[in-house]
Amino acid sequence: MHEIPAEPHFFIANATVRLQYADGVEETIDLVPPLNFWAISPFGPADYNPASDGFTLAATLPETLTLRLKNTGAMTALFSSMHPLLNYRNDFYLSDNHLSIPPGETRDVTLRAPLQPKDGLTLGQTGWRIETWNAPDVFIEPTLLLAIGRQDRMTREFAGGAGGAPTINGTKVRLAGRLPAASSLPLLMESGRVVEFEFPVTGTPGAAVLRIHTADQSPAGANLRATLNGQTFTAEIPAGLGLQKIDPQHLAKSKTVEIPLPANALRQGDNTLTLELANDGWFTWDALDLM
Ligand SMILES: [Ca+2]
Questions:
Q1: Ligand 1 centroid, distance to 141 Cα (angstroms)
Q2: What is the pLDDT, as a whole number, of residue 281?
Q3: How would you write 199-246 as a 3-class SS string?
Q4: Is the pLDDT of residue 29 over 80?
Q5: What is the pLDDT of residue 90?
Q6: What is the 255 CA–ligand 1 centroid distance (Å)?
Q7: CA 87 / ligand 1 centre spacing (Å)
Q8: Does residue 239 carry a pLDDT above 90?
Q9: Which of 147 and 2 is assigned the larger pLDDT?
Q10: Domains in the chain: ranges and CATH
């Protein structure tokens, strides 16, 4: 039996936070201080410090994305669930999962995530796959200017990767479209290989950021040269463990390199981005995105 200290603990016994959004939706979060738990657990209440462990509400409320799912078929859509496409993220709140939607009916699913997520992608940029037990998958495309691969520290989706896409040996690789298939790009980027992306931009583009996510890198790093519509930018890929050139499935230390692009680099209509290495370094692909 552990005693609850008489003082100086000041805490809320129980509380409810109500979030009232402009669209009339209200959400509530029940706050139950862990002292209640600790007080009756074998560890006792000593591990809980209200000053550092107390509940707080973020000053800026999270990003919200509402997915409206309509069943246009004749059978009830069973166990609908949402999956992030471009990364492996677990920092979001999901209002409903494993929904059953009768024929002709509509259900809304609300997702919320921090405004500054650690992977840098908003919920819209992440893209979503909606899986239902008895209907084909539905995809909501990422709202990025260009993206390939899934940011998960692994090369498996690329050509020659563990996902089963056949190896590609060509020195020049051409990829077309805003969301080209990762299975068309060799997982190893090495000296002498030129990768060219041709992708359309709708609307008037502004300044952008190109992000290269690598799964492993040469022990000496690599010097990347990116040429976008004739303008050249350079970036240094940091040194890595140097394991995946031989063993792509070996866990390594992934890195992200960001290349800021000025407002005049992209243009409305067709764009060409060419990537090559300026030294003998190499890296293995995790993902690429342009936002
Ligand atoms: Ca990946």
A1: 17
A2: 95
A3: EEECCCCCCEEEEEEEEEECCCCEEEEEEECCEEEEEEECCCCCCCCC
A4: no
A5: 79
A6: 12
A7: 8
A8: yes
A9: 147
A10: 1-57 (no CATH), 63-143 (2.60.40.10), 147-290 (2.60.120.260)
